[in-house]
Design goal:
Elements (H helix, E strand, L loop, with lengths): L2 H4 L3 H32 E5 L3 H11 L5 H11 L18 E5 L6 H24 L9 H43 L2 H13 L2 H13 L6 E2 H11 L1 H5 L1 H5 L4 H8 L2 E7 L5 E7 L3
Antiparallel strand pairs: 1-2, 3-5, 4-5
Helix pairs in contact: 2-3, 2-4, 2-5, 2-6, 4-5, 5-6, 8-9
Amino acid sequence: MDREQHSSPPSLKDEVFRKIGRNLLIFQQIEGLLKMILGNSKVQGYARELAINREQRIDGMQKDMMGQLIKQYFDEILSSSDEEPQGPRDLTEPWLSSSFKIAADADFAKNQLEAFEMMREERNRLVHHFLPDWHPDSPESLILASDDLDKQREKVLLVWEHLKSVAGTMQQARQMQARYMASDDFIQQFELLWLQQSPLIQLFCDIAMQIGRADGWACLAHAGKLVHMQLADDVAQMKATYGHHSFKKLLIASNLFEIWDKALPHGGSRTFYRIRKP
């Protein structure tokens, strides 16, 4: 019997090679989807730094192992934690935080984690342990390898499809977010929140609680003197920063206070303010 009779048919060997490449490509796509999702799922920082922070986050996980990516995915994406990100205590400019999560019950998360761990084990088996069992000249071995590769593909397809679905949902969410952030409504709300969190407004809140009467009203002139003493630089830049040249207009614009112009007996008025009730 000559050598050709002992060797496996080229078509069968080629088919196994094709399936190896197919499965490796699926694992690479899973890894790529994990990095894409995680890289874009969370971004925070000062507005001018968001793009840089995002790039650094993406670059930082390029060398992460599959196990690290899976752990991060379940810690950040499929997590039941509602922990809010903490920004700097002394904000000097707009600071933003955005995150993407999937609401899932414990059973769903547990099942997904098991599926991801199985996928990781299958990937390691193909990448690190396939060659010891590789017998290219044995038709029986090639048939077993071909069947095993098909079964492996079926096992990991659920993870692949799950991540593709998550990536699609994230893309839709980002598009909606981008449209909203470009809208006049967002700009107005953002400017309002920025003003409400400003050092000047926060100080006026503190002063109202300290010097206000039993009914909450505090003299704006008195409060203004205290603000001048504590935040002189902010007061000097108030018009340029917030667009208002008087404390009264600043407080009205913040929408956090009630304003009362009390008429005086001999003419004129005195302005009082108090924190608006929720």
